[in-house]
Design goal:
Blueprint lengths: L3 E10 L2 E10 L8 E9 L2 H9 L14 E8 L10 E5 L14 E4 L5 E2 L6 H26 L8 E4 L5 H12 L3 E6 L5 H7 L3 E4 L15 E6 L3 H9 L1 E9 L13 H5 L3 E4 L7 H14 L2 H4 L3 E4 L1 H12 L6 E5 L3
Parallel strand pairs: 8-9, 8-11, 9-10, 11-12, 12-13, 14-15
Antiparallel strand pairs: 1-2, 3-4, 3-6, 3-15, 4-5, 5-7
Helix pairs in contact: 1-9, 2-3
């Protein structure tokens, strides 16, 4: 084990933000019980906001960003984790309240990491990351129309933001469940790939960007939405009676222009999804469900791998909506 390691360090001096790859010593870490040698991290929209200017999320600087990572335990806690264990961290406010995954090492509390399930390696875990975990939770929420509400079968589901990290996983998982998935995208060149993921139909985003009616023709048994704004408003208006709309993002805006009509006339359920503040037991269960629901050979086609230095040039493209691939960060590249 090396005494020094490389990491992205974000600093702020009087609102002058800097970000650079630095060499640090292991004694940099003051807290935590488990030392992890990181293999991979990833790039989420929240990561991009933090890299730009802290995203109004970081209170203490300097900070190593990166809300996700996967790697191998090199110093365990003496109880749950031992040397050699493969582990995953998503959420937990890593890269915000404590140092995160854009580093070759991390030291964290044992309650913040989970053991990787059989069938998923570190790279695959970061192809998923927080976004993939959220996508799976959204798919399960929509399917709950059957299991929890004991209503009719979920046949047709709309997925917005379908080429994003959440959307791609939701499309594939729902399709594996035998559901007819319609994907909304503003990237027509991705239509064939969405169908390879499992989408039965692909719709241009422009069809959902106009002002929504109070209520529209009931088309969807469920909706997975990661964009918000008018797209979500239209999706709600088109949701069938007893349908579930799982929401987890705001890429198209924070405001939701809707009315009570779909909720009181059709009993539509609006289900907020938060993959950060969930129990460790819940995370372990979710990660264990992935191997049977995903084809990583297909997901790999949408992945770009970047090193730490390259990451600092890429993150602005995510903020502009110009990234065409999921970015997996090889911290040792």
């Amino acid at each position: 084990m090396a005494d020094s390691f490389k990491a992205v360090v974000l600093n702020n001096q009087n609102e002058n933000f800097t970000r650079e790859v630095k060499e640090l010593n292991l004694d940099h870490f003051k807290d935590g019980e488990v030392l992890v040698k990181i293999d991979f991290s990833d790039l989420n929209f929240k990561d991009a906001m933090i890299l730009k200017d802290g995203g109004k999320l970081i209170k203490e600087y300097p900070r190593i960003p990166g809300i996700d990572f996967a790697g191998t335990v090199v110093e365990g806690d003496g109880e749950e984790f031992k040397e050699g264990d493969k582990v995953i961290l998503t959420g937990c406010r890593a890269g915000e309240l404590f140092d995160g995954g854009y580093s070759q090492y991390a030291k964290v509390k044992k309650d913040q990491i989970t053991k990787a399930p059989n069938g998923i390696n570190s790279r695959q875990a970061m192809i998923l990351g927080t976004a993939g975990l959220t996508g799976l939770m959204c798919a399960f929420a929509v399917k709950a129309r059957e299991e929890l509400l004991m209503q009719s079968k979920v046949n047709d589901v709309l997925v917005t933001g379908s080429t994003g990290g959440v959307g791609m996983v939701a499309v594939m998982v729902l399709a594996k469940m035998g559901i007819n998935v319609t994907a909304i995208t503003g990237k027509p060149d991705k239509a064939e790939y969405l169908k390879e993921l499992g989408a039965k139909n692909v719709i241009d985003r422009k069809e959902f960007e106009g002002e929504a009616r109070l209520i529209d023709k009931g088309t969807w048994d469920g909706v997975v939405d990661s964009v918000g704004g008018n797209i979500l408003s239209n999706a709600i208006a088109q949701t069938k009676p007893k349908g579930i709309v799982a929401i987890c993002g705001n890429a198209s805006g924070n405001k939701l222009n809707t009315s009570v009509i779909p909720f009181i006339l059709r009993a539509v359920k609006l289900w907020g999804i938060d993959s950060v503040n969930i129990s460790k037991k819940r995370k372990e269960y979710l990660w264990g469900e992935f191997p049977a629901l995903l084809d990583f050979n297909i997901l790999e086609k949408s992945v770009k791998t970047a090193g730490l230095e390259e990451l600092l040039n890429i993150y602005p493209d995510m903020l502009k909506g110009n990234l065409k691939n999921k970015v997996v960060v090889d911290v040792n590249k």
